[in-house]
Amino acid sequence: MRRPSMRTIPLAISLALSFGVALAQTTASGGTSGTGSSATGGQSAPAAQPGTGARNAETRKDDKLARGDRKFIQEAAEAGMYEVEAAKIAASKATDPAVKSYAGMLVDQHSAANNELVQLANAKKVELPAAPPRSKRRDIEKLGKLGGKELDQRFVREVGIKDHQRDIRKFEKAGKDVKDPELKAWIEKTLPHLREHLAAAQKLPQSGGDASAMGNRAGGSDLGSTPRGSATGTNTGNKTGS
Fold first, then answer.
1. Which of 66, 242, 107 is nearest to 168 (CA)?
2. Of these four, 31, 73, 143, 191, which has the most CB atoms within 10 Å of its CB?
3. The dihedral sign for the CA sequence 171, 177, 179, 185
4. Kindly report the CA angle at 130 between 127 and 136, in degrees rounded to 5?
5. Could you tell me the CATH number of the domain that includes residue 76?
6. What is the pLDDT of residues 46-84, one digit of tens each?
7. 221: part of which helix (H) or strand (E)?
8. What 3-state class would DSSP assign to 29?
9. Residue 229 included in any domain
10. Is this structure's pTM higher than 0.70?
């Protein structure tokens, strides 16, 4: 009885080793399960786990940008996309020619600023959002359902005034806080245009009689007192940027 059992043990070990080698070879070749093992270069991992793909891994490896700088770039991109989309609606549907003209100017200038920010983000390996946040997408949908004077007024007050007041506050703070010199230069270049946009919106009849006073209270500075915003926004920016 002992001889058969002694022969059986080596045979079992041999079968186990053969199975292990076959399994290892199957895993190394990627198998047929398509689970994205290490042998596949992890190519399926980004799809299975959004936000942890190769681009983010590269960002972590070469991360030379402060966390606050990175966050500002992403938030500025979201705001820029929202304002372009809202302005496109107003440029198409506004009834007042002055509002149409104002909206067209926002589309052109915010699109240019957005393109510059994309280039900067790519250079700094910052992954930008693909769309505005959900709350802003809802605002865009609501604006698109409006028409006539109601659309004109909503666009001027919400996008032209309130959103630009919010942008200016963020840009002013970021101009003092960000560490990256190229990002700081982009902020300093863009901020005068935001002030110009606010000043132009406050001049439109749809802004409401107390728009300037509201701008002063909401902005915490003299953002509403820019009656002579030029096409370049330089003089207005110098007055406001204390």
1. 242
2. 73
3. positive
4. 120
5. 1.20.1260.10
6. 232 233 333 443 444 446 799 999 999 999 999 999 999
7. none
8. coil
9. yes
10. no
